[in-house]
Amino acid sequence: MGAGSSGRLGVLDAAELPPTFTADNMQYIALMAGGDGALRTAREAIEDSREAGRADLDALFPTSDDALIGITSSGRTPYVLGALQRAHELGLLTIGLVCVRPSAVRMERNCTVVVDPVTGPEVITGSTRMKAGTATKMALNMISTGVQIKLGKTYGNLMIDLNASNHKLVSRARRIIRTIAAEVGLPPSYASIFTDDEQLDAVIRRCDGSVKLALVVVVSGWGIDLCREALTRRGGVLRAVLDDVRFETVARVFKV
């Protein structure tokens, strides 16, 4: 949640999560002072209203299960301060992202965590879309990517929860599946996926474009429904499911 350049960077980061990690569109919601129209046409005055920040947050009916990242390079934008105060009152996890010390965000003590890289004076004084904006983008990338990693959306450095919805992503999906399959081994019936794009693409299509599900299918040799159940049981964490596959294979071979 933010205003001006800070708000636009928040919108950008939130917009990238669904295609990159197959995240639910309603799981990460970006609030911009002045609404979506302010993305293209600046509406500077609205950022001066603490009440607007509170109202925009309340409109989403947040609960204590939610979290709010308040982004303000200056550390004092009223719109963001009001939202952080309201979020704190409601028991949300609150994160303040600012680029100065000291800051009103830290002094008001409404944040569970304050991330405050000090970027120093801008080349053009006061133009925080420059150094502060770059630092903000990097910090948001680290926060959102870290969350996705903890949610099991990656395997090593591979984005296994992408959805193969265009030619570029289909090619990436093939590489990911083949890389991990080579690491963990394959049942003989699926060994040809290393050389046969059509066969691998057919598996991906049967899995509705889900790379993670297709991976479990080709590595385990199980049916799609069983693989989907295995992922659900393990909270979507691929590494845990692959451990189950290994155990099941060993148990079958040695009749444990």
UniProtKB/TrEMBL annotation:
Question: A single GO molecular function, which one?
Answer: carbohydrate binding
One GO CC annotation, please? nucleoplasm
Q: Mind listing the GO biological process terms from this record?
A: amino sugar catabolic process; glucose homeostasis; response to fructose
Top-level taxon: Eukaryota
Q: Which UniProt keywords apply?
A: Carbohydrate metabolism, Lyase
- Keyword Hydrolase present in the record's keywords: the answer is no
Q: Name one Pfam family in it.
A: GKRP_SIS_N
Extract the InterPro entries matched here.
Answer: Etherase_MurQ (IPR005488), Glucokinase_regulatory_CS (IPR005486), MURQ/GCKR (IPR040190), SIS_dom (IPR001347), SIS_dom_sf (IPR046348)
User: Record's PROSITE patterns?
Assistant: GCKR, SIS
Q: Where is the SIS domain?
A: 1-153
UniProt-listed PANTHER family: GLUCOKINASE REGULATORY PROTEIN
Q: What is this protein called in UniProt?
A: SIS domain-containing protein
